[in-house]
Amino acid sequence: MRFLSDFLQYVELDSFLHRLDPRTKFVFFIIMSILTSFVKSGAALLFLFLVFLSIWLIGRIGKYMLVLANKVKVLLLFIFLLWLVLGAFSVHGGPLIYRTAFTLFGNHYVFSLEWYDFYKGAVYALRIFLMIAAFYTVILTTNFSQIILGLQSWRVPYAVAFGVGLVFQIIPMIVQEFATIMEAQKSRGLEVDKCGPLAKMKNYVIVSLPLLFRVLSKGHAISLAMHYYKLNFKVRRTSYKMIKATYSDVLFASATLVATVVTIILQLTYYIQI
Q1: 23-37, 64-78, 201-215: least confident range
Q2: What is the C-alpha to C-alpha distance for residues 229 and 223, in angstroms, rounded to an integer?
Q3: CA distances from 156 to 20, 31, 145, 151 (A)
Q4: Which residue ranges does UniProt annotate as crossing the membrane (predicted)?
């Protein structure tokens, strides 16, 4: 299927989310990035996930986000297990699953597995996913020129606007290159996932070297293109297409504001110290 190969790039669709003013989506990205950076309540994050899910369904990008979730599931599982292991060596006051004490090299340790440890791992994994999802929600529904045009309308210098837009294009490109290299290495017999921690670390180092050269090659190609087309940031630019906020933008911004307030209330009400 086509969307499996280009889920990291802008998708041309006629949806409510695609028709929004790019400035509205950029503000949404900033707000959601800030929210997911400090919200640590499971109830608040679950509500925020439902908000994202509603946006994806309305914007008809739900299948692309499923692919994204599948791509980052290893990372999310690693984060979950990491916090689970770290929490298992700390004693909390939550419901207990298993606890034992042992001595190693003269030091006394307590292994205490509690439901709180699973909660903490799930909270951090969901936070990371929502951070990534906020970024890709904008990428999937806003093309390169719209990002630049939206920033310029805020009187952001063209060089800065171009740089920000380029970042939104390059990061998905790097991730796509990494996925391509991983598939190529697997076809040659290099098993990256189904191996021990040390072997996995070594294999990722092996994969990172060709990725570095591919990224440098892409950067060089972009630099040459900018040079050949004589890109001059000092030239005043106009645009055939004008952007203008509509009633849909007011509706989306209002929904974002309400979701933000509810998330903060849930954070303050149901926060459990992590």
Answers
A1: 201-215
A2: 10
A3: 20, 19, 14, 6
A4: 26-53, 74-98, 118-144, 156-175, 211-229, 250-272
Would you say the C-alpha torsion 225, 222, 177, 124 has a positive or negative sign? negative
3-state secondary structure of 104: strand
Report whether 123 contacts 99 (CB < 8 A): no
The residue among 116, 102, 117, 135 whose CA lies nearest residue 31 is 135
Give the pLDDT band (50/70/90) at residue 248: very high
The CA distance from 25 to 61, in Å, is: 15
Distance CA 134, CA 138 (A): 7
Q: How far apart are CA 149 and CA 72, in angstroms?
A: 31
Q: How many CB atoms lie within 10 A of CB 82?
A: 13
Give the three-class secondary structure for 260: helix
Report the SS3 class of residue 110: strand
Q: What is the pLDDT of residue 118?
A: 83
State how far the Cα of 244 lies from the Cα of 172, in Å rounded to an integer.
27
Q: pLDDT band at residue 4, thresholds of 50, 70 and 90?
A: very low
Q: Compute φ and ψ for 271, nearest 5 degrees.
A: -70, 130
- The whole-angstrom separation of Cα 138 and Cα 33 is 12
| Rounded Cα distance, 255 and 58, in Å | 13
Other Cβ atoms within 10 Å of 49 Cβ, number: 14
Residue 105 vs residues 31, 47, 102, 179, 265: alpha-carbon distances, Å: 49, 46, 10, 43, 47
Would the pTM of this model clear 0.85, i.e. be above it? no
